[in-house]
């Protein structure tokens, strides 16, 4: 659910065209050597885990990263690439299931999937639970500088408070930004009512003069360096930022927020399906998942891994908020195409205002 | 004859990575989501007029500044033989050895309200500047990144001007201003034109600079195109159509400029 930087986007954009021409890409190889092509978010794994997997199984891991769900979608859609394991977020998984882009996982080969907590089984985005195995989850909340914001922060309203004009950052992606306004207004993230979306964007238009910048990754530097004072971002990254600047604090707003799950899937036509399943199985092991969580700061869906975490991480309410607040959080589901188009249109309206 | 074979790898490269993608862009631009022929994407273009205008305007401003700042530098360097020229050229090329994105990120830290420039100004007791996240910062980013592309072509053209032409003009009584206006400047026009092209084209299509230095508050053409591929809707057809319109606008303006350039040269010959 993290978005990674613009340069890789530019590269993907260029490659989209180029690979479209080449078309073929790398087909299946029937060599003796077993391998698995893994495509994950940037900085979303403990890389030692990959070496350990190679050592234990003898399967070579070709590891690549993507910056956004949309970039992943785009590169799969334009063809010419072949991956065996991908880790999209909830709403993107449901979109890919709808568009028949994923293969069913053979759970006989993934016994460790049983370790996944009951709460994360058969989720809304994959109702039959046949296509995905949860990798990590997290929430979106407000990160703020306690030296500037001395009042208690409990609500999204702080992002619309004129007192902090010029110190506020917002998401530079329409789903997250419009989502915040929708939640603040008391609507669902997944509303398909155009009037509600329009109302939310109207609110963002009003907010625009207060906003210092619309950012993704740049939020790290701007918040830890004191350039800005308030901004919404992902909980896992909040942990990283708070380690760097102890003045920062995190709040999961009382109106509720977004809870996201990134899950491992096998795209249709994967050349090494068996190896992919072996990889997924490995990633569900308690010690492995715990190692990944400690490096990334995101939260594990595997109870066994949670128990292995150091105490201060287990008690960290940023990573593991209390059940009551979590109950108010909502996942993104895939929106129908006309609403997705409408999101882009409304985003253009906000940006050209 | 041999030279023709040597160029084969480049021709293949061009065909695969320049011509073929261009053809794809054209095909995509006229394809509807359902797969048939359509002009619908172009009909939608009217709503983006503001973005087109803003992008063209910012790119023009950046190009004008690059020309105003770059021409004198190119002129001085071209007319000075010596260490001075070599050091000058090195300094102009040096930033280009670093990654484009890193350089732009560095400008972000420089221009921020708590950035280096402002801290320095406060240190001197001067009032700070507030440039970051404005169109001004975007123009600064463009000028900084693309200035060498203005200087280099002008430099190489002026350097090649036959000294005897200048001497002849001087012998005929032209003072240095007249020599510049009637001889050097007209002869350097091809360099100026390619400099303008090489600054204007990347400026008009950039999206990283506006995102990092403009604070993502304005949408430029590059952002708009990127959004079609990596936004919510995934509409490569509309993205291609916008790219195509942008390319046509750029090509037309270059053609007009070249026409204008030829006129100048013709006038000079007369």
UniProtKB/TrEMBL annotation, chain A:
Keywords for the protein's UniProt record, in alphabetical order: Periplasm, Signal, Transport
The keyword Transmembrane helix appears for this protein: no
Signal peptide stretch: 1-23
Cellular compartment(s): Periplasm
A single Gene Ontology CC term: periplasmic space
Source organism, top-level taxon: Bacteria
UniProt-listed Pfam families: SBP_bac_8
Residues that bind spermidine: 43, 91
Example GO biological process: polyamine transport
Major location category of this protein: periplasm
Alphabetized GO MF terms: polyamine binding
UniProt cross-references to PANTHER family, sorted A to Z: SPERMIDINE/PUTRESCINE-BINDING PERIPLASMIC PROTEIN, SPERMIDINE_PUTRESCINE-BINDING PERIPLASMIC PROTEIN
Name of the protein described by the UniProt record: Spermidine/putrescine transport system substrate-binding protein
Species for this entry: Papillibacter cinnamivorans DSM 12816
Classification lineage: Bacteria, Bacillati, Bacillota, Clostridia, Eubacteriales
From TrEMBL, chain B:
One annotated Gene Ontology cellular component of this protein: plasma membrane
A Gene Ontology biological process term: transmembrane transport
Topological type in the membrane: Multi-pass membrane protein
Keyword list, A-Z: Cell membrane, Membrane, Transmembrane, Transmembrane helix, Transport
Subcellular location: Cell membrane
InterPro entries: MetI-like (IPR000515), MetI-like_sf (IPR035906)
Domain ABC transmembrane type-1: 52-257
TM segment ranges: 12-31, 51-77, 89-108, 128-155, 234-256
Family: Belongs to the binding-protein-dependent transport system permease family. CysTW subfamily.
Protein's name according to its UniProt entry: Spermidine/putrescine transport system permease protein
Organism expressing this protein natively: Papillibacter cinnamivorans DSM 12816
